[in-house]
Amino acid sequence: MKHPSLVVAILAFAPAAFAEEPIVPEGSALVFTSFRGDGDDGLHLAASRDGYTWTPLRDDKPIFQPKVGGGLVRDPNIVAGPDGVYHMTWTTGWTHSSVGYAHSRDLIHWSEARQVDVMTAEPRARNVWAPELFFDDKQDRFLIFWASTIPGRFPATEATGDDGYNHRTYMTATKDFQTFTPTRLLYDPGFNSIDSTIVRDGDRYAMFIKDETRTPPAKNIRVAFAPAPAGPYGPPSSPITGNYWAEGPSAIKLGGRWYVYFDRYTEGRYGLVTSTDLVRWRDESDRVHFPKDFRHGSVLLVPASILAGLESAGRE
């Protein structure tokens, strides 16, 4: 399906004095997940108290090293449930049809990892990439969503991707991570797309997504809106990121401003755009500092006690 693009303004980078500082709630802290290299060694975590400078935890050693599916831990995404339990999904391999899953109460001690096969109804699916979670409080369930290529499914864009990939976003839902709803298409923006992430903005929901078009090159982040987390989502916006290749967006609202972090993967660095209305964007990439080789992860707000525990564990 094809949609007209919405107009999204990207403001030029402003001096630090012009940008508002993020407001981290008292008693809370920011934690960011990531992986290193190809994802062979497990989950890495970094922390920040201002949203701009991120420090690796545990001397940047992996805190969790599960081996399920293809054995990798790429694109780790963590979301807290209403009971305070943290749930994590990740990409287990380049050509596997499963999602890695585990849970924890402190981000230090994790359950046994499990492989959740989410594309068994689509045996021709080439991959399951960048699975993410969103807790739908209105229906008391978690959405799991990811990018897959099913050959021949979207012929109009078959030749636009890398190595014959032509992704769209699919989803399932669960209340207990034991039983799951049938997998279905979540979003087709009309182009090859990966790395979706969902946030709530008042009475609406925003999905940030990467345009994965290679021919002609796009490789940028866009945003679409829906009345419910499971859609239907409207047309994608124009790019909200600059003239560099971007992927792996992760969004959080601090005070009255949205912070969307993303992996500027061809440059080996992270970027940041901010907005008060999800329409007009300011590029603040020059203000952020991440650990070396930091790769596609997700940002989350945690109680300060969780960060204190992580920091103490790193000193043991």
TrEMBL record:
Annotated transmembrane regions: none
Signal as UniProt keyword: yes
Pathway assigned in UniProt: Glycan metabolism; L-arabinan degradation
Signal sequence annotation: 1-19
Superkingdom, natural source: Bacteria
Database matches in CDD domains: GH43_Bt3655-like
Key word Ion transport present: no
Keyword tags: Glycosidase, Hydrolase, Signal
GO MF, one example: hydrolase activity
Family assignment from sequence similarity: Belongs to the glycosyl hydrolase 43 family.
Name of the molecule in the record: Glycoside hydrolase family 43 protein
